[in-house]
Amino acid sequence: MSNRILVADDEPSVLKVVKYYAEKNGYRVDTASDGESALRLFQDATPDLVVLDIMMPGLNGFEVCEAIREVDIRVPVIFLTAKGDLVDKGMGFKLGADDYVTKPFEPEELIMRIGTCLRRRDAFPVERKNPGVIDLGDLSVDLSSKTVVVRGAEVSLTAKEFDLLAFLAQHPTEAISRVRLLQGVWGEDYIGDSGVVAVVVRKVREKVEENPAKPHHLLTEWGYGYRLV
C-alpha cells in the first residue's frame, strides 16, 4: 500500500501543486488549509508523513508539530517556509522537524525530500512501547517525562544533556552536524563557543555508555557531528 501524506498550507495553489506531484509519484494525499484541520486529519487519517506550512491561520506549523509529537515521535515532518521569513529553525528541529523546504520550491525537490524522509524512517525502525518513548536497544528516552533509562537503570541528566540526547534520539542513526545540534539544542541566537556541543556529548557519554572511550550508542562522525544508534 502506498504511503499517505498530509499536506497543510493556507495557499490553495501550494496544496494543488503538492497534491498533484505527490499523487503522480504514487502517494495518497490529504490536504488542510489551517492548523486545526491538519490536526483533525492527522488523527483521522494517520499519515506516514506530514508537510506543514509554518505561517498558517489559527495554529501555526510549530504548534501543529508540537501537538503531533505528543502522540507520534516517528512520523516525519517537513516544514515549508516562505523565502525571506525569519524562522527559528532551531525551534523547529527541537520540536522534532525532519527537514525544511523554502518557498518557492521545485515540486520535484519536495517529492525527493519526502522520499528520503520515508526511506530513513523505514530503514531504521524504532520500537515504541509507549507514545513519546524512544527505545534504542538498552537505551530508552522518554520525551514526556524527560527521563532516560540505560540497561534498566534511570540515569540523571542535566536539562541540556537531556535536550541533546532527545534531539539525537528523534533522528535515530542519522548523522547530525554540530551546527544543526547547536541550533536545535541551544538555538540560533546562541553566541557562545560552539565547542559546547562536544563538552555536553562527553558528559552524556559518561552517563549512558558502559565505556565512554568506546561508545556504543553516541557515535562521532569525524569532521561532521554525531549519531545516536
TrEMBL record:
This protein's record includes keyword DNA-binding: yes
Source organism (scientific name): Raoultibacter timonensis
Domain of life: Bacteria
PANTHER family: REGULATOR OF RPOS, TWO-COMPONENT RESPONSE REGULATOR ORR33
Protein name: DNA-binding response regulator
Modified residues (4-aspartylphosphate): 53
InterPro entries the UniProt entry points to: CheY-like_superfamily (IPR011006), OmpR/PhoB-type_DNA-bd (IPR001867), Sig_transdc_resp-reg_receiver (IPR001789), WalR-like (IPR039420), WH-like_DNA-bd_sf (IPR036388)
Keyword line: DNA-binding, Phosphoprotein, Transcription, Transcription regulation, Two-component regulatory system
DNA-binding region: 131-229
Entry keyword Ligase: no
GO molecular function: DNA binding
Pfam families: Response_reg, Trans_reg_C
All copies of domain Response regulatory, residue ranges: 4-118
OmpR/PhoB-type domain residues: 131-229
Lineage of the species this protein comes from: Bacteria, Bacillati, Actinomycetota, Coriobacteriia, Eggerthellales
